[in-house]
Every structure is written in C-alpha cells, then in structure tokens.
Design a protein that fits this description.
The complex is a heterodimer of chains A (430) and B (148). By secondary structure, chain A is an alpha/beta fold. Chain A contains 15 helices and 17 strands. Chain B starts with a helix and ends with a helix. The chains are: A alpha/beta (430), B alpha+beta (148).
Amino acid sequence: MTGQTGTAEALTANEVARIKADFEILEHQVNGADIVYLDSGATSQKPRCVYEAEQHYYENANAAVHRGAHTLAVEATDLFEQGRETVAKFIGAKTNELVWTSNATEALNLISYSMSNASLGRGGEAAARFRLGPGDEILTTELEHHANLIPWQELAFRTGATLRYVPIAEDGSLRYDLIVSLVTERTKLVAFTHVSNVLGTITDTRRFVDAARKVGALTVLDGCQSVPHLPVDVKSLDVDFMAFSGHKMLGPTGIGGLYGREELLNAMPPFLTGGSMITVVDMEHAEYLPAPQRFEAGTQRISQVHGLATAASYLDEIGMDRIADWEEHLGELLYQGLSALEGVRVFGPADAKRIGTVPFEVIGVHPHDVGQFLDSRGIAVRVGHHCAQPLHRALGVTATTRASTYLYNTEEDIKALIEAVASVREYFGV
Amino acid sequence: MNELDQLYQQVILDHSKRRIGSPLVEPEGGHRHGESHQHNPICGDQIRVRVELEGEKFTAMSWEGDGCSISMASASVLSEMLPELTREEFLDKLDLFREMMRSKGTMTPDEEVLEDAVAFAGVSKFPARVKCAMLAWVAAEVAMLEAA
C-alpha cells in the first residue's frame, strides 16, 4: 500500500505551515537557529492536542481500568477502550484485535515468547500452530531493525528452530526473487518490515504474504515506519500480525500496539501474566481472558492510550493518503537533492517507492561529525547504525546519517539540510 | 570562537587525518606489550590499541580504529604523548584528561601536563562526544594493565 490513491489532493505548503504551528517544539530555536527536525524516524514530535489529552485524563478521569465500580474508574475505562476502538479503526482492525504494549519491541517479543510458551505445550492443541521445534524455520530479512530480528534469533535458540533471511542486493533492495525458494513447508513464520527504518523503502508485502500463505506460515509485519506515514489497512495487507509504536506517530512514548487476527490471538498462550488477564485463579492454576485482555497483564498505560488515540484522530482528520503524498514529495526532494551533491553518497535503490527517509554518507567525514555539524545549524538528524547493523554491514558501512521527515516538514527544511550538507566537507577540510 | 569551532579545533582536525601511531605495528622482541580493543556500541566507533613497555616506561603505542574525528584524533594525540612516559605519569595525565572531559567546559586544562590533548577541552561541552575522546585513553589503560 502506498499513498498514491490518486483521489486525494496533496497537502499544500500553507496547510503544512498550519500543521507545523500545532507543534510547540518546532517553534523553538536550537544553537541560535530555527529548529529543523529531520529525525521523525527515531521519534516524532507531538502536537499540543496529544499532551493536552494526557493532561485532560489526569485532571478528569484518572483511575485504574477494568476494575472498581466508582465513577472515575468507569470514565478511565471508557477512555481506554474508546482509544482502542479509534486506533484499531485507524489500522483497519477489529477493536478486540488490538493489544496494547509498551512499544513495538514488546509487541514483537510478545509473539516470540507466546510461541515459545506454545512450544513448551502451553495453550494445548489450540496453540499447536504456534509450536516450533528442530526442523522448523523462521524467515526474516536482512533489512530489519534489530527489534524484528533478535526476538526471532532468541525464539530459534529456545525452540531449536532455524532462522533464515532474505538478503538484500548491493543497492539495499530486497531480493524478492529468492522468497519463493526460501519459503518452504518448513517455514512456520515470516517476519518482515513494511518500510525500512534506514532506507525508507516500502516493501512489496504481497510477495511475502503470498509465499507464506501457500505453506501456511504465519506473517508478522513491522509497521513502525509505515503506520505513521502511509494509509495502512491490516485486512487488505492480509498479514496475521503487525507491530507498531505510538511515539513515531505523534503519540506519547510508552505505548505501542500489536494487531493480531482474532482467532490467532485467542489461541495463543499469554506472554506476561498476572493481574487483569484472568478469569478464575486457584493456587495451582489460572484461566485466561480472551484477547486483548489476555495479553494486558498489570495496570495499563491509560493516559498514553488516550494520547495515542488523539494522535490517530489528528492524522485521520488530515488524511493519511495526503500525508503519504506530501512525504513522498519530500523524500524525492531529499533523495535527488542529496544525490546531486559532490562527495555525498545516498543509500537505497533509486527507483524505489519510499517515504521521506533517506540515509547518506559524506565521503571522508564520519556520520557522527556530520550530525554534530548539522546540529550546530539547528538541524536534527540521526547518525549511527539505526538499530540495523546487518543492513549497514551489507551496505559496506558501519554508520550512516539519516534524514527522516513527517507531515510537519516543509520544503524549506529539506533545502536547509541540503545546503548544510553541501558545506560539511569544506568545514572538515576534506 | 563558536562552540563548534571549539569542538573541532584545527589540532583535532589535523590529527584525525594524520592518525599518528596508526596502523598497528608488531611489538619489538623483549618488550612487554599489551593490547585492548574498545568499542562504543552507541555509534559503532572502535579502536585497537597496542602499547609496549620497558620497565616502567612506555616505549611505543600503535593503533587501528574506525570512528569519528574526535575519537581518531584523540588516539593520534595520545600516540604522540605516550612514549617516554612512565606508567605513573600516564595515569596522572589520564586522571586529568578524564576530569577535563567531565567538566562540561568549566575547566581550564593544564597545558604543561596535557600537551596537545588540551585541544579536547571543547569536547567536554558536548556530553555525547566525551566517550569519543576517551575511547583511546581507556584502551591504552587496559592495554597497559594487560602488559603488566
């Protein structure tokens, strides 16, 4: 899925200026310069309505949810469950198909640990399709963020299954041609990213889903970089699970989500256990609630859910297809502008569909120094391996500088970055 | 001088390109030697430092690394300083260098003791870069202990 629906009109510069005014922090100065925030791939900034929603919750409705009969508890529970409904709708899921987690990393670990619990026999026959053992295979890709790699490495270690991966070509594009031979009857799970957090390239998810369906393997989509930037509908994507994070889509930190097909979630054994996820408990054992509560042990992140739902409504009102079109435009300006600079190498395939995320290197200057130089001009970018060491190794570098946009970025922001990058080599005497 | 220029003093930019003491050289026979590999997982910078000692005195330091200008320049400056120092003199300088790095720009360093390493005073205003400047020093200390 991409933003090119062809029906929406792209955001105009005036609208982006109005949107930007909703973000207090973007009115600030850094090191004597207007802030140019190009690190939304790491975390997005938040509009006032999001933290005001959190404040509203604490001032008017703070209580523990799903317990207690007093009025505040009812109001808190309402906000919490309305939040679920809003965000579930935002990704095209049914309300009870959205499990709250602390972040996307926890969502992916939830699947990994639930599957190892199933492999130990927990969940009984209903959980049989989540069992892994020697001879079974998990497939991921060389493009992944560590959060969509290490949980599968650990799951393989715990169960004796084998982890395999789809490699990338020299330009960073996925070797789709190898999927057919890598997905076999042994494959039980296929985990892949929707959008590369480093390259910004959009995955052709169909290729993975079709191959996985043919052999009955489960599919796990990392939606961290797609849900904030593209219209995402889990039903048309036809994946079994999708993890995403709140703080990258204008929401608060400390909240993420796991989408799972209803019948799958209800067949999986729990990961974290304790209060709020049970029906009957005696001293020897416990019965568990259906999803999503089954996976929400302990006191929940209520203000964060309310904040995230407010963020999703904010995005929805502007229109995800329009945001996607705007960011595709910014991404194109970034890619072309940086590519045109002498002594700058841009990573990622030239002809790919991408969001507004572009990694690059300034030849002869370490990314850490590039980032420092840009910071002195008020420009915030990310430098390092971006939690994707295998990808960087495949590209033949240890670190890159990454610029990543969001709906509040203007063409002027991109221009400021490109002008600044153009003077990096001179400053460092390269 | 603005803060960026204080961070990237000419001495640092020069050393980051000249990389005195790099690459690694095989230790001379009869000298005690030690080696240490240090890695900064945050940025991926890494360095391998080898030191040689004769009695209490350093005779050589060589290194190989991959990292930002601050970490590479720091290793280069240290390679130039280390030979002829005693273990104790090095540890004194290390203490002072570390104190300077933790001073958040408030300390006027003693040039007599720190020599070219005073150029790193500006780094202390950038807490995210302190590790870069310390990397080679920490590696040299571990290598020295290994040589003991």
